Amino acid sequence: MSKKGVYQLSARQLVLLAFASALIAVGTMACLSNLGGFWQIRSSNIAAAEDAPTPQGISNPATVSDEQNSIEVYKSLSPGVAFITTSSQAQNFYGEEFETEKGNGSGSVIDAQGHILTNFHVVEGSTKLTVSFGGEKNYTAKVIGGDPDTDLAVIKIEPAADKLTVVPLGDSDQLEVGQKVLAIGNPFGLDRTLTTGVISGLQRPIRARNGRPIEGAIQTDASINPGNSGGPLLDKFGRMIGINSQILSPQGGSVGVGFAIPVSIAKRVIPQLIQYGEVRRPKLGATLYSVEQLSEQGIKMPVPKGLLVRSVSPGGSAATAGLRGLSQDSGGELVLGDIITSIDGSAIADLDDLYKLLDKKQIGDTVQVEIYRNNKAQKVAVKLMPLPASIQGRPPIRKQ
To answer: How confident is the model at residue 90, as a pLDDT?
Structure first.
């Protein structure tokens, strides 16, 4: 005789589940604007930037005035800051295709081969990229790779015989609030503009446009505006410590609260973007709902926190390990799937917890997943793999 308990859903709960699922899918709107236009918007390559000597022309900041330091950093590094103009295809009333300018942003040269680091949202959906460095010469660029989860992308120009100024990568793990920073970019299309300020905060929670959390963002009061996206946030030695990405502003203009993606994240993703065109992360391969959010919608759940498995992707990590999604019993009643409560001993309360944990894992790692199934807790070993190619979504980015 089967138990009718919390694992079976009544018709009313089923309706609530569908309604709650829709709400969860919509997500929470944040008051963060991307800077590429108000929402228009360890490899040899990494070593080339990290091992680059201290830029010539920058004196020891302790021996010169703050004003002189700003002048020297700008003169030395601004030639390596790219002005990126993006275009996309459109159709007129008669169905004729034409190219229209989509927006502009900024970027930093990271090696002598012409690779440029920028934001994913700057190049997302573009069909043509043009890069300039303050002169009349323009370069045609192509997208090498993009990662919507970290809002970072790498594009490339063919520098030919031109000598490029490489922006050296610094260390974002040793920053302190109050430290001087300088931002160089192209706000509102104004070529290579310098603003200065300080680090206002560290470890700020921001999100990429796809809703994924970006850990450890740097908050600064250096004035940044639409068009600064993808440009470097520099320390007083001229080293890139962050990639300017978002502003907190109701009107889309600078109010002294800007956010930069730590360069430590860039160091981690750039090699994969150049090698694969994407960041290959392990995926659980399951559609998941927050237990807490479902409970708030009136659905009785057997545990207070965790992630309910709605379904598993065939061939994915969860399916291979035997995790179960929603199903029907012999009487046709809907039965709840497994509920993930922890992974490797770390509590999993929502999707952010899962993303943060998986971001620290490698493809092929095996994790111990604690689940609640059939009114009891148990552990399942799950080998983390990428999603099968047949069901793997690709970022909406066009590679030229």
So the answer is: 67
CATH of 32-276, one of 2.40.10.120, 3.40.50.2300, 3.90.550.10, 1.10.940.10: 2.40.10.120
Active-site option among 121, 200, 317, 353: 121
C-alpha closest to that of 187 among 221, 240, 230, 157: 230
Residue ranges per structural domain of the chain: 11-27+281-383, 32-276
Of residues 33, 229, 245, 342, which has the active-site annotation? 229
The single residue of 111, 149, 151, 338 carrying the catalytic annotation is 151
**CATH class, 11-27+281-383 region:** mainly beta
The residues, any chain, with a CB within 8 Å of residue 111's CB and separated by 6 or more, are: 44, 45, 48, 49, 166
Residue 151 known to be catalytic: yes
Question: Active-site residue 229, yes or no?
Answer: yes
Tens-place pLDDT, residues 71-86? 999 999 999 999 999 9
Determine the average pLDDT of the residues in 55-82: 93
The model's confidence at residue 50, banded by pLDDT at 50, 70 and 90, is low
